[in-house]
Design brief:
The chain is α/β, with parallel strands linked by helices.
Length: about 375
């Protein structure tokens, strides 16, 4: 295993923001700790915000190749050509031992670069791709080609395994579930105080899948006597398709519901500062329609902040209703609002969820995730 040369192709990498960037950086850190040489390939991110608190150490073993994304390529084969050419160029110089596409479609240039050699390719499903497979929004031929030809497939949500099984039960013979992890050491334990009582909050990049309007409408239904503030920690991504219109729609909804004096949108916050905002909340709410394994919810749980979430994808792999969280159906305003009221008004519920959240977060420790990746890499490199 030592001194292996790894090609990692990812949609995002630190200091880009988002779950994929954070998870791929965490994986690279694991590989560097094993003294592997890692080359990361990704397109230059269109998002203007960066999280400079996400830093990967051991830079002497790491090379990051950020390429210009081809224009108007969509997800056609044209989209992957620059990645393939760069990977192939580096491969001819050092000869990679293993290729890894971090997001399923990113395994396509890996397979192209591998060619007829028997070097292993890992393909990782990262949440939203399970939805693409279900709704057939992606290039189905490329997806099936990747699944058929990859040596191993990982998924961050167990729903991914079920979808693979529905396509072909034999896929499960070369697939595994590897969850995200969270570091809990040194976290400041959340406590209910007069200053945070009644504050409902969330953290994230406010993309469409986060369904922020659902959270705003649910908050509006909460008894005004027990609610104080809706704290939205994060921001919209302006240069994503429809990003600016999403901001306009949310601001208009806030105005229509008369919540201008109760809603705060902080703008982008560095990862190292998120813990402070958790301390300002009475409850953390995730109103998403789709999720892989949400880092923010795990981070909230790790400090004992009560968690409410929809039962989207990877949420079900982390939380248990009534023990460490309150779970409501995706898109259900009434039940989400009822859950928020329950937490804001019942101290015994708060105490139960807070203790349960910490216990749950401790299960998803980095050492566990690290070992799962190590086992996967070892098994593949034995081919």
């Amino acid at each position: 295993m030592l001194s292996k040369k790894i090609c990692l192709v990812t949609a995002k990498f630190a200091p880009d923001v988002g779950g994929v960037a954070k998870a791929s950086a965490r994986l690279v850190q694991f590989l560097l700790e094993l003294k592997m040489t890692v080359h990361v390939f990704c397109y230059k991110n269109k998002e203007v915000v960066k999280d400079e608190s996400l830093i990967v150490i051991n830079q002497d073993l790491l090379t990051i190749h950020r390429l210009d994304e081809p224009k108007n390529a969509g997800f056609s084969t044209k989209y992957y050509v620059p990645l393939y050419k760069k990977i192939k160029d580096i491969d001819q110089q050092i000869s990679f031992d293993l290729f890894h596409g971090f997001m399923l479609h990113m395994a396509f240039p890996c397979l192209m670069a591998r060619g007829n050699s028997n070097r292993p390719v890992i393909a990782s499903i990262r949440g939203i791709e399970t939805v693409w497979m279900l709704e057939d929004k992606f290039n189905t031929k490329i997806f099936r080609y990747i699944i058929d030809n990859s040596d191993w497939i990982t998924t961050v949500a167990k729903d991914g395994l079920e979808i693979l099984k529905s396509l072909n039960k034999n896929y499960l013979e070369k697939a595994s579930f590897i969850p995200n992890s969270i570091e809990t050491t040194g976290n400041i334990r959340w406590q209910l105080q007069n200053s945070n009582k009644g504050v409902v909050g969330t953290v994230g990049i406010f993309r469409e899948k986060k369904n922020l309007p659902l959270l705003i409408k649910a908050y509006h239904r909460v008894n005004p006597k027990i609610r104080k503030k809706l704290l939205l920690v994060g921001d919209f991504v302006e240069n994503e398709e429809c990003g600016n219109s999403a901001r306009i729609k949310v601001n208009q909804l806030i105005k229509d519901l008369g919540l201008e004096n109760e809603v705060e949108i902080t703008g982008f916050i560095n990862n190292r500062d998120i813990q402070r905002y958790f301390q300002e909340m009475n409850v953390f709410v995730l109103s998403s329609d789709q999720e892989g394994m949400p880092n923010a919810a795990l981070e909230a749980a790790s400090v004992g902040l009560p968690v409410i979430a929809t039962n989207a994808d990877g949420i079900k792999d982390i939380f248990t209703h009534g023990k460490d969280s309150l779970i409501s159906p995706v898109g259900d305003i009434e039940k989400l609002s009822h859950s928020i009221e329950k937490v804001l008004s019942d101290l015994s519920v708060i105490e139960t969820l807070s203790a349960g959240a910490i216990h749950t977060a401790e299960k998803f420790n980095p050492q566990y995730e690290r070992q799962l990746w190590l086992d996967t890499y070892q098994n593949c490199l034995m081919y």
